[in-house]
Amino acid sequence: MTTWVLGNLKHRASSRTFVVVYAEQFSCLKRSSMSTFNYVASAQAPTAVNAAVKGNFIVKDRIDLIVSKETFVEVYNIENDLLSLVYQFNLYGRIEALETCQMQGRDTCSLFIFTDQGRYCILSYDPIQSTIITEQHGHPGHHPARLADDIFVRTIGRERNLVVASIYSGLLHVFPITPIPSGKGKAKAVNTLRPEPFAIRIDEFLILSLVALDNEPEPTIAVLYANERKRRFIKTYQLNLKIKSINEQAFGYQANARDSDYLLLPMPAPYTGFCVVSDSIITCHDKRGTYNSKSTSINFTIMSAYSDFTIDEEQNTIQCFLSDTSRVLYVLRIWFNINGAVVRIALESLGTVVRATAIVPFPNDRVFLGSAQADSTLIKLDSKPITVLDELLSLAPIVDFCLFDLDKQGRQTMVCCSGADNNGSLRMVQDGVGFLPKTELSMAGIKGVWTLKQKGDSSIDNAMVISTVHGTRILYIEPGTDVVEELSEFSALKLEESTLAIDQVDNLIVHVTPSGVRLVENEPNGALLDEWRPAPDKVITVAAVNGSQCVLSSGRGELICIEVKDNRLAYDAPKMLGHEISCLDISHFQKSYVAVGLWGGQHIQVLRLPDLSNVAQDASAEGLVPRSVVLTELDHVQYLMLTLGDGQLVYYRLGQQGLVDKKQLTLGTHSVFLHKLIHNNRPCIFAASDRPTMITSENKRLVFSGVNLKEIRGCKEFNNPIHQGVIVATDRSLVFGRINPVRKLHITKAPLYNETARRVLYHEETKTIAVGTSTVKRNIDDGSEHYTGWLRIFDARTLQELNAYSLLEHEVVESLCSLYMEELESEVVFVGTAIVSEQDKDQLPGRVLAFQVLTNYEYKLLDAVNVSGVVYSMKPYLGSIIMSVNGSLYFLESFKQDEESGKKLRLVPKLHSNMIALSLDTRNDMLLVGDMIHSMSVIKPDDSAERRLKKVASDYNPNYMQTVKILKEDLFLGADASYNFFILRQMSEDARRLEIVGEYHLGELVNSIKQGSISRQPSDTGDGGRLLYGTVGGSIGSIIPLEQDQYEFLVVVQQNILNIRPSIGNLEHRVWRMFQNGIRKAEPHNFIDGDLVESFLQLSYMEKEMVVKGSNGGSLLPCDVEKLQDIIEQLANYR
C-alpha cells in the first residue's frame, strides 16, 4: 500500500458572474466603433528584464532574486533549481536603475529605484501587512545641467547605507539611506533631522562608467569619463559627507584611458582597486601596488552585462561573469598573493547563452541571466554545455506581429516576432485559462482517470480510479482524513485489468474491463452483485457508462446495451453496425442517446437508448476515424463533438433535423480526447491533447480557451475537503490542481536558431505565415557586421517551417504586404527590403520583391525591383500597393508578366514630403503617414487623371513616430518614440491642421498596432473597433473605444481608486500619464488607464466600498460594489 499526504490543498471553489448590462451604460462595448475616448489596458505585462539584483528583501534569512521589467518589480525565490515568484508590484514610472541598500536597524534590505522621469524612491517590504513601504522619495532637484546620456546608480560602503548617482552632467547626487523617523517628543524632533539628498558639482560632464570602491575608509567612487576632445580618463573621488563635497585633501587616482575603454569593474573588499574593460583588453588596477596594473588580451568584443565579483578565499581569487553582444558568457578571474596584490588575470569563455542585461550569481554554480531580448534563464555552470535550469518567458522585444482566426471560430491567434541579435523566435499567443497545480503524484502509463463518490454522500469524491497499461489503480481517501492511500483491492473491481469505463448508480458501481462488466457495491469491502462477460473468443474494446446504462462493443461492429435493474445487469440482443466501433459516449440529456464513432461507413451515428434505433448519422469528409466523442449540453444547446486522429475537432448541433451546423477546427497535432467537466457550476468540455483546450459556451456560442498544460491524457473534477478542483493525468503523473477563473495568455515558442524575426504576415488562403528573418555575424578583429536575410514560410497551425528563400548578400526584410492580383488570379506577397552596407549606412538601397503564393505552400518569385532607399512600410491602396521608400511614397502602377526580370513591377514615385516615412496606414483613398520627425500627415489623391497624391492635413508639432493607425475618416492614432499615445482629428474636410484630441503616456515603446483582439469573444460580435499593440518591453495591450458617458464614468472610478490607494514610491499617477516628448508636456486626456481601473478587482471588499462611496475626497458612484465589479470584469474580459 502506498500513501500520500496532500497537504495545504484546502481552498474555496471560486465562481464568477459575468455582467450583461449595467444601466445600458456598458452594453454597447461590442458595437463601439473607433472613438476619441479610449480604454488602454495590458493583456500581457512587460517581460523584458532590464535589471536584476539579489538580497534579503522579503525574509531576512533568504536571498531572493529581484528583477525589474519596465515598470514592474518581481521577487523570485530560487528553490530546487526553479524560479518561484513570491511577490510583484508595479510603479508609476519606468525603472531606469535598481539597487539594493540597507536601512540602519533593519534585518532585510531595501530597494533604491530611479525612474525615467527623474524621481527616486527607497522601498522596503512589510512582512506583517505583506505590502511595500515607501521609506524615502522625491526628485533630485531641477538643475540647469542637462540629463546625462547614461545614468549610473551605485550603493557605497560596507554598510550599504549610501547611494551615489550620476543623473545630470557635471553633478553627482548622494542619497543617505535612513529609516522613517520614529519616537515621541524630543526623540521625535531629533529623529526628524534625517539627512537629505544633496548634489556635488564635478568637472567631468560625460561619464562612461561609475563604480563604488568598497574597501576604503571614506565613501569613494571611480569614474571613467571623456572630455570635450573625446579623450578618455580614469579618476577616483573621495566624498566628504559632512561638507557635502569632494574631499580635496585626499589623494585621488588619475590616469589616461584607452579610447576603447568603456567599463569599470570594482573589486570587492578586502581587495582594493578596479578593472577596466576595453574591446580587446582587460586591465586590473590594484591600489595596494599604488594602482599597479595587470592586463589580459581578449578577442574583439563588447560586454553588455556583468555581475559583482565573488570571493574564493581558499584559492585567494575573485571572479565575476560577463556577457557580450554576441551572447557569449565569460568568467573573469583574478589571482592575488598573500599580501593581497594582483598576480594574474584571465578571461575564460564558458559558452553561448542569451544576450544578458543583468547577471546575478548564486551559490552552487547557479547564475541568473536577465535579458531584454530573449527568455531570462537560470543556468548551472558545473557541467558543459551550460545547463538551463529554468526560464522566465519573454516576448521582448515584439518587433512585429500578425493576428488571424485560423478556423473562423472566434479564436484569435497572435504570432509575434520576438527577440533580437540572433536570438529570435516566433511566439504564438492565444487567450485561455490557467491550470494552477497543487500536488503531483508520480505514476507512469496512465490511460484514463475517473472519480467515485463517497457512499451516502453524492457531493464528496473519495476514490480515484486510474487506468494504466498494466491494470487499474485505486487511490482512496478515508472519510475524515487527509491521507491518500493506494488500495490493492476495492470492492469487487477487477484491478488486474485496464479500466475502459466506470460510473455509479445510487450506491452501486458499474465497472467495465476488457473481460466483462461488473456490478459491485460502492465500499472498500463491497461484494460482486452481477457480472456480464462477452463470448469466450471476444474482449470488450470500447465502452461508455451513464449511471444505470452501459454500452459497449466486443468487436466486429457489435453494439450492446446493458441496463442496471434491481441490482442486476440486463441486456438485449446486440445491434450490428457493419464497421468496427472506435469510440462511444452516452448522453446526460432528458432522453438517453449513445454516440458511436466507427472505423468506416457513416463514421458517426447517434442511436436512441435502450432500443438502439438510429437518430442521426454523418460521414467524415476526410475519411478519418473518430478517436473520441461526446454528447453534451452547453448553454441549453445540445452538441455532438468528435475528434479525429490528426487533432481536428468536428462538432454538430443535435436538433430535430438530426446533426446540423457542422463545423470543424484544429485543437492539437495528434489525437484529442474529450472529457466532460463541471467548471464554475457550468458544464464544459476538456479536450486533452498536446494543446489542451476548454470548450465552454457564452450566449449560445462556443468559446475555445487554451489551457497552460502540455500532453494531457485525461481530466476529471474532484471534490473533497482536502482538494476541490480537478485532476489531470499526464503520461507520467497525476496532478491535483484547479482551473483559474482569471483568463490569461498562453504562449508557445518556436525558436529561430541564430536568427531574428523582423516582419511577419499571415496568408489566409494557404494558412501560412511569411516571416522575414536575418542573422548578423560580427568580425572579431574590427567589429564589422555582416547581415544575411531570408523570407521563411511557416505553417500557421504548428509553426513548422515549410519553405525558405534567400535574399541578396547584406539584404534584410523591412516590410511585408499581400494583395490579390486579378491578372494572376492569386494572392501576391510583396517584400520590401534594405541592403545594409558598412560603407554607406546613411544611403542604404533596397528592393521590392513579389512572390506568387501557390496552393502547395510554395512562394514563387515573380520579380524584384531595385529602389533608392529602404522600403520601411507597405500597404494595400487603391487596388494596388503603396510603399514608403525613405521619405518618398511609391505606388505600384502596373504588373506586366511578359516584361523581362526587373521590369515587371512598375513603381512610380508619387510624393516626397517626409524626412523618413516609417509607418503607413490606409483606408479607402486615405493614406496616413507617420514620419520619423514630422509626426503624422494625411495624404489623398487629387481629381486628376493621374491621381497624384497630395498632403491634405498635418500635425505641425514635432513628434518622432513609431507607428500610426487610422481610427476613422477624421481620427488618427499615433505612438511616438517617447512612449506616448496621442490622437489627432481633422476638424473639417478643408482643415490643414490636425488637432490634438487625446494624449496619454503609455510608458512603453510601441512597435506595432493592429486592428483586432485576442480575447475570447465569439466571432460574430466582431472586434468592436478594438486595437492590439506590442511593445519593445514585451508587453501586449489593448485599446478599446468608449462612448463619452462611459469615459466620464471611468474617469471618476479611476480617481476614486487613486484616492484610497496611495501609490508605491509616492509616484504620482497624473504625472506618470502626462504626455511628454522632451519638447512639451500635456495633461493626459480622453484615455483611461485600464490597468489602474482593473486593480479594483484586487481590492478588499471594504476598499471596494470606499471606491463606490468616493471616500477621501472622491465622487459617489451611481452603482453598488457588485455592479461596478461586473462592469470592470466585462472590460477585462473584452480586451
UniProtKB/TrEMBL annotation:
Keyword Lipid metabolism: no
Record-annotated RSE1/DDB1/CPSF1 second beta-propeller domain positions: 439-738
Cross-referenced SUPFAM superfamilies: Quinoprotein alcohol dehydrogenase-like
InterPro entries in UniProt: Beta-prop_RSE1/DDB1/CPSF1_1st, Beta-prop_RSE1/DDB1/CPSF1_2nd, Quinoprotein_ADH-like_sf, RSE1/DDB1/CFT1, RSE1/DDB1/CPSF1_C, WD40/YVTN_repeat-like_dom_sf
Cellular location(s): Nucleus
Domain RSE1/DDB1/CPSF1 C-terminal: 791-1097
Keyword Nucleus: yes
A GO term for molecular function: nucleic acid binding
Classification via Pfam families: Beta-prop_RSE1_1st (PF10433), Beta-prop_RSE1_2nd (PF23726), CPSF_A (PF03178)
Primary site of residence: nucleus
Domain RSE1/DDB1/CPSF1 first beta-propeller, first and last residues per copy: 48-392
Keywords (A to Z) from UniProt: Nucleus
Domain of life (superkingdom): Eukaryota
One Gene Ontology term, aspect cellular component: nucleus
Family stated for the protein in its record: Belongs to the DDB1 family.
Protein name (database record): DNA damage-binding protein 1
Organism: Lichtheimia corymbifera JMRC:FSU:9682
